[in-house]
């Protein structure tokens, strides 16, 4: 939610800021703006995307070597020019960009209104910059002190960067809850909500911690103070992001590129962990907690969105293979419902970004209760990675498309390995079954590659369904979450209403919706409940619904009744989710393309939801 970029040094700030905003646009695209100091502080902002900002500043003075920029996902106030960031202080001499929500902004605003200030926007951010300047002027203190005092009054989440016309040689940044990374150049500094805008300039970064304020002055070392004025030692890390992953590489959309990357990303999430030669699975990141995992009373998986669906797949796998009771919780519910937690429970938080506010809050709650918390996360160095006791990175590489694809299959791959690792040690599956699964798992990347060859066929099917209003997705067992994920993908990018349901539950409600207009996507691969799913397909057909069936290659039974059939390569039924997800991703993608939707930036969504 909202992307922030800042630069201070000897280079022209504008290209760095605009490139950075383009990289961060996945975090929100309601409005964009920037502020640069060149003698005077200049501020340009507009409703719309980064490209609209580029058009807006085309004939304006954008020179200067210090600046901040912002791309917004609206929280307070509708997305318009006025509510766009940056926001001015009352004197117009300071500008601030902010990601997060200041919860007590109303009471702070009332106080400032009483003191005669006026506001042009409806945002909480304008309140904060007014407060900072008010404190600076009234207390007659320097700007860093004023920021400290203002932040000590703030309740909520923020990542902020501030520049001041009177001190053009300094950039101030602070964070609580929302992420901020400082890049350390030779004689300059970069700052951003994640490392992607920074990596092409420097690989040395400092991830700010909550309550920290960074003071960046070119020619001096980075200085970090806390809100309560403790001096902190910066921990400089090396970035390991492949720049090529941040480009579309000839694909029309990041989403399609990321769908196609899955053969590699699934392989990468197994690399060094699963070895056919030794017949072993080792998850180095959680090694220290292996005993705890083996003896866990329960595993509680917490996540949001697509990551929550990965958790549901994990529940089936962990219970089936490792015989440990599992609960899957929406992080947003878990954090507020006073969950009953035992010391021998293990909480595993799953998150692509590692920054989802609800997931982070759920982790903090579990930690407060003394429970071991592990993470499954894609973004190296993210908040989740830093606050969990241990974890496994998914290694899917940067995911830019707002609709999650390769991160999901990588999360499922980690969960499969975790379930297998525990089952091997606890001997809850036979050696033979374990080794079979290991062999099959190693063949998944090749089978995903084969699955992708169905792209043209899926596009043709998709074109027949571009005008539908609703869709139903059905699956059973480990494929029920895949049906939900398929439905979510369609909703997210094509704006068609879709529901994912356990196939057998259809008769308890959704069947009432079925008519000749209604596409029903059924995952009917070979498994224990195959015949039952075939009966569900018959029930849909009897009501004239249109069936798109995902079947195991060579299937003949479903072919006789379904309107469209997509074959997936044969594998162990527990591993089908890794392959059956692919045609569902492609189906939504092609439907959305044919409907002319914005694939990588679907309306109202953001990739990283850092507010509640
Ligand atoms: C947003 C994204 C989804 C994602 C969810 C959880 O809603 O649009 O694609 O699944 O957040 O994000 P996380 O980074 O925690 O996996």
- Proportion in β-strands: 15-25%
Shape: globular
CATH second-level architecture of the largest domain: 4-Layer Sandwich
| Bound molecule types | 6-O-phosphono-alpha-D-glucopyranose
Query: What gyration radius follows from the Cα positions, in whole Å?
Result: 25 Å
What is the CATH top level name of the largest domain? Alpha Beta
| Order of the strands making up the biggest sheet | 3-2-4-1-10-9-11-15
Count of strand segments? 27
Please describe the biggest sheet, giving its number of strands, its sense, and whether it closes into a barrel.
8 strands, antiparallel
Poorly predicted parts: none
Helix content: 25-40%
What's the name of the CATH homologous superfamily of the largest domain? Aminohydrolase, N-terminal nucleophile (Ntn) domain
The domain tally reads 3
Under CATH, the topology of the largest domain is which? Glutamine Phosphoribosylpyrophosphate, subunit 1, domain 1
Mean pLDDT: 95
N- and C-termini, Cα separation: 10 Å
Structural class: alpha/beta
Distinct helical segment count: 19
Overview features:
single chain; 612 residues; alpha/beta; Glutamine Phosphoribosylpyrophosphate, subunit 1, domain 1; Rossmann fold; 3 domains; 8-stranded antiparallel sheet; 7-stranded antiparallel sheet; 35% helix; binds 6-O-phosphono-alpha-D-glucopyranose
């Amino acid at each position: 939610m909202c992307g922030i970029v800042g630069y201070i040094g000897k280079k022209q700030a504008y290209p760095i800021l605009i490139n950075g905003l383009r990289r961060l646009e996945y975090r929100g695209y309601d409005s964009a703006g920037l502020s640069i100091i060149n003698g005077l502080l200049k501020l340009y902002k507009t409703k719309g995307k980064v490209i609209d900002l580029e058009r807006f500043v085309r004939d304006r003075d954008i020179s200067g070597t210090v600046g901040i920029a912002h791309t917004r996902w609206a929280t307070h106030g509708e997305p318009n020019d006025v509510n766009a960031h940056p926001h001015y202080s009352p004197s117009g001499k300071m500008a601030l960009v902010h990601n997060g929500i200041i919860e007590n902004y109303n009471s702070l605003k009332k106080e400032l209104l009483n003191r005669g200030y006026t506001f042009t926007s409806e945002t909480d951010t304008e309140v904060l910059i007014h407060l900072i300047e008010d404190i600076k002027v009234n207390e007659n203190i320097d700007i860093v002190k004023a920021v400290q005092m203002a932040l000590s009054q703030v309740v909520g989440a923020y990542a902020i960067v501030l520049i001041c016309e009177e001190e053009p040689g300094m950039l101030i940044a602070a964070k609580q809850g929302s992420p901020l990374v400082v890049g350390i150049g030779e004689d300059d500094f970069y700052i951003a909500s994640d490392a992607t805008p920074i990596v092409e300039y420097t690989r040395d970064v400092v991830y700010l911690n909550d309550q920290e304020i960074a003071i960046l002055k070119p020619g001096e070392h980075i200085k970090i103070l806390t809100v309560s004025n403790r001096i902190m030692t910066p921990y400089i890390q090396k970035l390991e992001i492949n720049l090529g992953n941040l480009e579309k590489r000839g694909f029309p959309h990041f989403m399609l590129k990321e769908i196609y990357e899955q053969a590699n990303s699934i392989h990468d999430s197994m690399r060094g962990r699963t070895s056919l030669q030794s017949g072993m699975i080792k998850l180095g990141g959680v090694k220290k907690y292996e005993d705890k995992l083996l003896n866990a009373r329960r595993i509680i998986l917490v996540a949001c969105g697509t990551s929550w669906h990965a958790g549901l797949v994990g529940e089936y796998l962990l219970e089936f293979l490792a015989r440990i009771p599992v609960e899957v919780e929406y992080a947003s519910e878990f954090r507020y419902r006073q969950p009953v937690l035992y010391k021998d429970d293990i909480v595993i938080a799953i998150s692509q970004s590692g920054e989802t506010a609800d997931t982070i809050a759920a982790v903090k709650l579990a930690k407060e209760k003394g429970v071991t918390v592990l993470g499954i996360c894609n973004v190296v160095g993210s908040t989740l990675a830093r606050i969990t006791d241990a974890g496994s990175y998914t290694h899917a590489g940067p995911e830019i498309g707002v609709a999650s694809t390769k991160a999901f299959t990588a999360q499922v791959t980690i969960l499969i390995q975790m379930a297998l690792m525990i089952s091997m040690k606890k001997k809850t599956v036979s050696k033979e079954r374990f080794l079979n699964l290991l062999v099959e798992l190693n063949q998944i990347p090749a089978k995903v590659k084969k699955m992708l060859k169905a792209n043209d066929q899926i596009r043709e099917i998709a074109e027949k369904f571009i005008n539908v209003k609703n869709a139903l997705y059905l699956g059973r067992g480990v494929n029920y979450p895949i049906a939900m994920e398929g439905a979510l993908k369609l909703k997210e990018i094509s704006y068609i209403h879709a529901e994912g349901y356990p196939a057998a539950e259809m008769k308890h409600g959704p069947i009432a919706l079925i008519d000749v207009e209604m596409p029903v996507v059924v995952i009917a691969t070979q498994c224990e409940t195959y015949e039952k799913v075939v009966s569900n397909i018959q029930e849909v057909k009897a009501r004239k619904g249109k069936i798109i069936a995902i079947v195991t290659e060579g299937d003949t039974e479903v072919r006789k009744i379904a309107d469209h059939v997509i074959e997936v390569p044969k594998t162990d039924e527990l591993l089908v989710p890794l392959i059956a997800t692919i045609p569902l991703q492609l189906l939504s993608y092609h439907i959305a393309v044919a409907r002319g939707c914005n694939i990588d930036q679907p309306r109202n969504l953001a990739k990283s939801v850092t507010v509640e």
